[in-house]
Amino acid sequence: MNDLRTKTRLTMSEAAQYLGHSYSWMHTNHRVLGLGGYPIGGRWYFDKEDLDAWLCKVKASSGAKGYLPHRGNQKGRVRL
């Protein structure tokens, strides 16, 4: 597998690894969270710049050192 630090476009599994989450978390939440992915030929890709911008936005709005707020039992919904 290529080094994630040198890539600019990541697959969904690579983006999940880059964010420190599982593939299933990424697949379930990428649209709800607004991660800015785009499909090419049936596969989802994410620009690393968009993921970094999303992380900065979440860190600034959460006030909890960049961790997402607890969702409780609300499937697919996250309050930011």
Please describe what this structure looks like:
The mean pLDDT is 80. This protein has helices spanning 12-19, 23-33, 48-62; strands spanning 9-11, 38-40, 43-47. It is an alpha+beta fold and 80 residues long. The longest helix is centred in the C-terminal third of the chain and has 15 residues, at 48-62. Helix 1 (12-19) crosses helix 2 (23-33).
Protein topology:
Elements: E1 9-11, H1 12-19, H2 23-33, E2 38-40, E3 43-47, H3 48-62
Antiparallel strand pairs: 1-3, 2-3
User: What is the arithmetic mean of pLDDT?
Assistant: 80
Biggest beta sheet summary: 3 strands, antiparallel
Measured between the Cα atoms of the first and last residue, the distance is: 33 Å
Number of strands: 3
Low-confidence stretches: none
Summarize the helix and strand pattern as letters: EHHEEH
The secondary structure category is alpha+beta
Percent of residues in beta strands: 5-15%
Silhouette: globular
Please tally the helical runs, counting DSSP H or I stretches of 4 or more residues. Answer: 3
What radius of gyration results from the CA coordinates? 13 Å
Task: Name the strands of the widest sheet in spatial order.
Answer: 1-3-2
Amount of helix: 40-55%
